[in-house]
Amino acid sequence: MDTQKQVSLRIQQLCAEHGYNINSLARKAGIPPTTLKNIIYGNSHNPGIITIKLLCDGLGISLYDFFDTDSFKDTELEDID
Fold first, then answer.
1. Rounded to two decimals, what is the model's pTM?
2. Residues 29, 61: contact at Cβ < 8 Å?
């Protein structure tokens, strides 16, 4: 699974755990809902770390918590062309 898909799935998982929908998380994180939707639906292939940090702040978690999953730990290096 590519990193973009992992980020999307992790956001969805955290939304479910915290009882947020996309719009409520976007509002809590202070980002436009379209930005979050673009990340989740794969239209944004490279979400910035600042955006992910804002999402973490909205969820009340650290960046470490966001990426501390088996799927990220087992990620292989991606080819960059």
1. 0.86
2. no
72: nearest Cα among 19, 21, 9, 25: 9
- pLDDT attached to residue 11: 97
Q: What is the pLDDT of residue 2?
A: 84
The Cα–Cα gap between 64 and 66 comes to 5
Look up residue 30 and give its amino acid: G
Is the confidence at residue 8, as pLDDT, over 60? Answer: yes
* Cα(56)–Cα(29) distance, integer angstroms: 8
Angle between helices 49-59 and 3-18 (to 10 degrees): 20
d(CA 2, CA 62): 22
- DSSP letter, residue 45: S
> Quick check: 79 pLDDT over 60?
no
